């Protein structure tokens, strides 16, 4: 069985030495002193390693079962869910007005990485509830908030998001689910929704479904979509549970991974629902929380990479095959551990340098969300809005790739169930698809975010990178050569791509859109390059200050050097593809493929 | 359920317009007239599409079951196996002296792609038998050949390869299985072997195991390994079956994919075996057939990509979401088919341009094996020996990647079992691992093949590419620009990498070995670039000659242009990584990862 070791030390490094969170003027960040965050992360780590990780293969093998309309979660899930909920973990960053602890999102992101790495399918039950909580919190009426939020904060009640229908997912303008006014404040909801994660299960007393549907007078397309609360059990004025609503789980999806999470077909047969926010403004409500939800999926992607890497590393240190070509390393053993071989290292360094870079990038993103939500910082809001599709698309593509690399480290053992690596691969795969496929992320990035407010956000990002390079150059020739020069080159490629899109965007949109996916990756590499420069700088500062754990900081710098030398050159290929334009992409008639 | 459409037309194009097989002086190639190969491929295609493809999901869901020592294959497998065997498909390229049809390997490779694409797990039963047939054919005594081969050619008896043991796979010098002489011509074989594909099953009357073991006087390491025939049932002089041998299947591996194929733990408890070839020369016997076996795995990799692409394409033509940004394409429908969107096309073109390039590359490789085995062409032998790790490593990495891309085309549907794409991903994954992991392939390429005979083979490849460019330049400016220029640039990158290795190889082997994986991919792109140039040239010739099916040829050229413009630029990144050297790869102490 695979193991899980909470990366508390690395998280502390990112929070306090790179982001220096407690020095930020964001409301609530003054609480985030190193001792406090260490205590929180240690406790979360114990649950992740001791409770959730052992249940991960159980959930995979047993899966969920639909019996007489009831979905049974795998053995041990309910007890673990109770433990997580009773420990207050589901309330971490929720509003104290509804029972939350009001802690910054950046801290709950760190906890989220641990929970997601140790058991992604399990953690989704809480994650979906949190998403629904966010939507109601942002757009619900006071009465709705009072009625639903406290129980959702504690996860006594679950929450779901119902968007997709059999004939439409990405193009939500096509949805057919209907909402007909009942004459009071309620609506009759009728339709079928598919791929509803945690749509039905046995771990909560009630499930609060958020459902996109169309009112009778709705305009065509996405401008005619409204959002409804549709509880599994009606809730009485006093908060007690009333009648069962007319909705049911019509089936469970058989899928490649995340077997421990119930992916439901949900049938609404004239179910009673309540409008959230204004009529026809449901998409807006959905979009409000998209930055956070998509960052959460990017996190899932690299978190699977992180746990996969940990297990690949353990294997590489243990497995004896062949001899170091430069001289025997373990003469007392029949062979050397495979970590001596350059190609095994290349593989491990790819994993390590991605995972640590992704962690820093995600925490930085979470801190931008805090700055926006808590601090009302509009520039932060625009920046995270720009970066969100990169975090989601790039980190899940690379996170999945990392699980595949880790699986490869184990050779044949990686393909067997026993070692658990193949589950990480199968679970990570969904992150590239849900919450908007990565193709959609790239379209959002190039088609919407780049041009928003006259390109203000991307210009701000360029400025930020340029200033960083300028402010940090000239102090240390080695740092300049190993980190700033590659970052400058990669950033130039990103700017060149941006210029190409600007020049082509209006003339021939296909030229821009054909390069959107490469742009998302180019952008991702620049972001990770920036994070690695910042991390190396922070590590150097600690070394200069005489930090005792020199191995940790030296390793950090060496890992960053690897990323800059081996991964950043990819930006040139992405740029070459982008500037190759759309002609070869669009050349074929659809019939001739 | 996914569909399978045999790519007969494309195969015919490669065989006759690109490779022009029937004009080759290789013995037996005169038979390969277009009408003949078309007839063979049509019949094979019917079995692949009509019999094997429908069993592919059945095999995946049911898997194999071990009951009282007997392995039950999935429903329908035995009947299909009988049909394949009775149709003579297992005997296609086997020696007529033992009941084979004696057809060239290039033709059985084309048939193999169909069988493997439609049902990889199923086709492995025959594939393993064929591998064992090859080993006995090359190294067995006349008596052994007469006793075992006819029944293996017809697949009445199966065959297996027993290399791996629990503590060693790659490093076979560590094996512990013992062979003790019985005093007659037989040996007592004792040991445990794992991951034995088709090690035990119910589709054959007997199974002929080829087992690597050590004689009592064996030298240490790989130089002390001998190869033995260990039949499941002893074979009497008259060819009838005798007693059950002392060997058994001790368990089935639970694994990520190829569930329809039994992956067995095999226990040899003093089983009776017979030496194949000379004592201590077992590794040589294994290596003889490695080119063919590894080409077969490369084929499996791209074949899964091919069937996945076909199904992704069908989905992209059918699924309606969003509108073409340059103008509505299907006004009569609620949305346009997703194939109108540039990023969906980018994804499909990546798949298509890889699959067709890989097919040409593999068929070319198979024709080199024919030239070597049938024609005694030593240069062909050296060239295919050099290209084998590229075919195996590059085509399986990219083949797997292609299944992932295809799965992505389907969005959420790609993650569900129902659509079948996720099975292609899970099945394709093993091809990167078995028959030598792709890391090992890259080590074989850079550590052995490059330097062999003073680098004669790689120089020959460079000459071949240069001559091709020289011979074809100057006739058509567009062809020069779109195909020859990128090929020249990529080929230069490959040469620069080769020079770097030469300069570093002796000085610091870690510098060379740290770049081995990138070199394998760089090489693969150059090979596919060469194939695309050759295909485009052939397509142009047919167009110039007034071929009626202009769409096919124009599509071929456009697809090639895509590959050259969008994939070949990767060679620059691979070169940058290679010349970055081994310092960042090897920097960390194993304890500090």
TrEMBL record, chains A, B:
Its cofactor is FAD. It is an enzyme of class 1 (oxidoreductase). Its EC number is 1.3.99.41. The keyword Oxidoreductase applies. Keywords: FAD, Flavoprotein, Oxidoreductase. Residues 161-269 form the Acyl-CoA oxidase/dehydrogenase middle domain. Gene3D superfamilies: Acyl-CoA dehydrogenase/oxidase, N-terminal domain, Butyryl-CoA Dehydrogenase, subunit A, domain 2, Butyryl-CoA Dehydrogenase, subunit A, domain 3. Residues 281-444 form the Acyl-CoA dehydrogenase/oxidase C-terminal domain. It comes from the Bacteria. One of its GO terms (molecular function) is flavin adenine dinucleotide binding. It holds the Pfam family Acyl-CoA_dh_C. Residues 79-156 form the Acyl-CoA dehydrogenase/oxidase N-terminal domain. Involved in the assimilation of dimethylsulphoniopropionate (DMSP), an important compound in the fixation of carbon in marine phytoplankton, by mediating the conversion of 3-(methylthio)propanoyl-CoA (MMPA-CoA) to 3-(methylthio)acryloyl-CoA (MTA-CoA). This is 3-methylmercaptopropionyl-CoA dehydrogenase. It comes from Poseidonocella pacifica.
